Amino acid sequence: MSNKQLYCPKCSNLVVVNDYVILDILNTITHKKCYDLCFAIKDYGTFEELVSKYIFLDLNSI
Ligand SMILES: [Zn+2]
Predict the structure, then answer these.
(1) CA of 28 to the centre of ligand 1 (A)
(2) How far is the CA of 32 from the centre of ligand 1 (A)?
(3) pLDDT at position 62, please?
(4) How far is the CA of 52 from the centre of ligand 1 (A)?
(5) What does 4-60 look like in DSSP terms, one character per residue?
(6) What is the pTM of this model?
(7) pLDDT digit string (tens) for 11-62?
(8) How many A from CA of 40 to the centre of ligand 1?
(9) 4 pLDDT exceeds 80?
(10) What is the top-level taxon of the source organism (predicted)?
(11) What are phi and psi of 54, to 5 degrees?
C-alpha cells in the first residue's frame, strides 16, 4: 500500500498511513481532526488500519 495517495477533502493535505481518519457513509476518508459531520461516521482509525480493513479503499481502482 506504499503507493497509495489520498488527500483530505477538508484541508487538502495528504493523508498518511498513521494519520487518524474518519470513514464516512459515503466511503470518504477525512482526517479525524477535520471531520465535522459526526452523524455520518462509518468507522475510524488510522488510515493504514482502514485500508487493510476495507478492500474497497484500494485507491488504484477509484
Ligand atoms: Zn484534513
Answers:
(1) 12
(2) 7
(3) 46
(4) 20
(5) --EE-TTT-PEE-TTSEEEEETT--EEEGGG---GGGEEEEEEHHHHHHH-GGG-GG
(6) 0.77
(7) 999 999 999 999 998 889 999 999 987 778 999 999 999 988 887 666 654 4
(8) 16
(9) no
(10) Bacteria
(11) -120, 110
pLDDT band per the 50, 70, 90 thresholds, residue 1: very low
- In the block, residue with C-alpha cell 478492500: 55
CA 16 – ligand 1 centroid, Å: 11
- Cβ-proximal residues to 6 (8 Å cutoff; 6+ apart), any chain: 14, 15, 29, 47, 59
User: How far does residue 46's CA lie from ligand 1's centre (Å)?
Assistant: 13
